[in-house]
# Entry
Amino acid sequence: MKTKWLMAVAFYCLCCTSLPAQSRYNEEKPPAMLYGGAGMGFDYGGFGLKAEYLPVKYVGIFGGIGYNLAQMGYNAGLSFKVLPDKKVTPAIAAMYGYNAVIKITGAIEETTTYYGFTFGAGVDIKMGRKGNKLSTYLWVPVRSTDFKNDYDYAREYYNLSVITPVNASVGFNFALN
# Structure
């Protein structure tokens, strides 16, 4: 009889002492964040919209869709937040989607969008109490040999301007939860 009584007390103590610890853990663990916003750059598909989901505070999964001055562009990727608890959060990112466009106008009309990987680094600047943020990144696209060949041809015959090897993006993102 004493053994059952001791086991019941031990079980009760174990449950009661672990519940507050568990609730403290849940209070300290931030909820998954969801952002949505508008901006310009590769991660916004050109001039467009971007959504980002952070299942944990260090990692974001994002996608963007917009107009890239020729047609609809899209990108999807991952970001790693280096100091996620700071007001200015440095981040690195990688994505796949559109990373170059050649648009020829005049006597000949031709538009081609090129797809590939793009890597970048930037900062998220948190603004206000709700967790909204201003995001700005520098992107380095890995462009295909098809793009390079087409660009060299178009530059020679159609007097195109120079394409920059590094591109920037900026956008404002609202915390949706």
Summary: The two ends are 53 Å apart (CA to CA). The first strand starts at residue 33 and ends at 41. DSSP finds two helices and eight strands in the chain.
